[in-house]
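FW: tagging you since you asked about this chain on Friday. Here's the raw sequence from the shared folder, copied in full. Didn't touch anything.
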Amino acid sequence: MYFKKVDLKISADAIDVFKLKGEHRCSFPGIKHFEILDRTYFDSIFNFNFNILPINIFFVHIHSPLGPHTDYEQFACLNYYINSSDAKTCFWEPKENAVRVTNDRYDVSTNTVEKVEQLYKYKDLIMVDSFVANNNDSYFLNISKIHSVEFTKPVARTAIQFQWDNSISYEELINKLTFKEM
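HL: got it, structure written out here
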């Protein structure tokens, strides 16, 4: 399974992005992750608890297309799309002998750049599934699978991203995860 749409209810008609977008945490080409700035405001909007806690919660800003890749250290995420920008998220399977490409990961907290092998070339892949989210949609993504983001218009995609690591498989997380309103 690559993704699953879920009905995530929030307690706001409009989201004040300036209260959510905090300190820059890390980035890859095309995407930046930010800490949550105002946790009280965040908790008032996303007023629920997960029975399996995420390891990270970020405000995510995707400002250009993301080529085929797997995510670094995270295996599953739940994205709540504030501005979906009508971007298409695609999932891919590698052809035989597909080659991974090195990418730079910048960590703000340590001011270091790390080389990670997580990118793929389109010619080495077969697209197997895709979706286009609307604003305020929520999707679970299996980000251990190869995926990309394709833009149809020059508007940044923004989301709140809840991340889980490999301590639980994507399938197990989907089957066991519940979120309860507080």
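FW: The chain has a mean pLDDT of 87.
HL: agreed, and Residues 3-176 form a domain with the Jelly Rolls fold (CATH 2.60.120).
FW: great, closing this out.
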